Amino acid sequence: MTDTLDKAPASVPPEQIKAIPVRHYGRWVAGALVIAVLVLIGIAFSNAKINYSIIPDYLFDGGIVSGAWTTLYISVLAMVLGVALGIVLAVMRLSSNPVTSTVAWFYIWFFRGTPVLVQLLLWYNISLVFPILNLGFYKNEMNQVMTPVLTALLGLGLNEAAYMSEIVRAGIQSVDEGQTEASHALGMTQGQTLRRVILPQAMRVIVPPTGNEYINMLKTSSLAYAVQLPELIKKATDISSTSLAVVEMYFVACIWYLFLTTIFSIVQYYVERRYARGSTRNLPATPLQKVRANLTKMNMLSLSNWRR
Q1: φ, ψ for residue 254, nearest 5 deg
Q2: Please, are residues 130 and 202 in contact by the beta-carbon 8 Å criterion?
């Protein structure tokens, strides 16, 4: 028996498995199709009857720059109005008072259900309903009061308030009800609880869609050209009527819109990152931090190769 065991063959180690990656031919086909479509679009635009060389000449034209500035400040003012009124409407919507909640619901229903352009035109022609504005201490014809700037501010701001109210309402409802109960147990009033406890915690939910709403406001403000506001599209259209460079001026306007939205997208990213600190322990690296880390790694590799 001992001899039999001694003569037993030694165990052979299993052969190493060679993993062969699965070939995804569909990805290559889809990538080739996308590249082909992009090439065809590029060829079409390159052969179009568009004088691309004059676009840089008008990019910093005085009229275009002033139009971009008007677009910027009317968007900021309308957004401030929309956020302030949206908070009020959200609180009214969540109120147990049936009158205030019904009024807030009707406001949201109306302004979200009608086009912004129609609202702007209604405000522009409000003198048909109220020919004279009489506040007691101030009296004037409505045509003199309702300037293009005020028309755009009311049309854009009041419409934005309907959307902001839903965003704020969602943010308030995302806070646990125990926070409200604890605040009331400490003797805080409903208003103090809202200002000091609920809204600060709801900002993490409110900020991201609010940033998106402002970026959308920058583009929606272009509708104000219909009420003669000298914003970016209106200025580009006026210049194109004299230079006959219609499409070229639209490209100039697009470049300015892309610039403005890019700047505020970066601002939105860092604001969201700030409010995410309360819910995320390890925040992901910012693009600038990633660039610095990659540069440091490349410097270390080049230094190690040089020492060798």
Answers
A1: -60, -40
A2: no
Question: 3-state SS string over 83-110?
Answer: HHHHHHHHHHHHCCCHHHHHHHHHHHHH
Give the span between the Cα atoms of 275 and 264, in whole angstroms.
17
For 122-171, the pLDDT digits (tens) are 999 988 888 888 887 888 888 888 899 999 999 999 999 999 999 998 88
**Any idea which residue has 């229903």 for tokens?**
109
Rounded-to-10 torsion of CA 299, 303, 306, 308: -130
Model confidence at 52: pLDDT above 70 = yes
Angle at 34 between CA 32 and CA 37, to 5 degrees: 110
What pLDDT, in 10s, does the model give residues 196-214? 788 777 888 888 888 889 9
With a CB cutoff of 8 Å and minimum separation 6, the contacts of 271 are: 207, 211
Residues facing 141 on adjacent strands: 132
Contact 222, 272 (CB under 8 A): no
Tell me how far apart the alpha carbons of residues 301 and 308 are, in angstroms, rounded to a whole number. 11
Q: List Cβ neighbours of 101 (8 Å cut-off, separation of 6 or more).
A: 92, 93, 94, 95
CA 157/CA 82 separation, integer angstroms: 5
What's the token pair of residue 183? 């605040």
Is-contact 87 168, C-beta < 8 A?
yes
**Amino acid identity at 162:** A
Instruction: Compute the residue count for the chain.
Output: 308
User: What is the spatial distance between Cα 144 and Cα 153, in angstroms, rounded to a whole number?
Assistant: 16
Q: Any idea of the CA torsion for 232, 234, 236, 240, to the nearest 10 degrees?
A: 180
In the chain, how long is the greatest CA-to-CA distance?
121
> Are the C-beta atoms of 68 and 260 separated by less than 8 Å?
yes
Alpha-carbon distance 159 to 165, whole Å?
A: 10
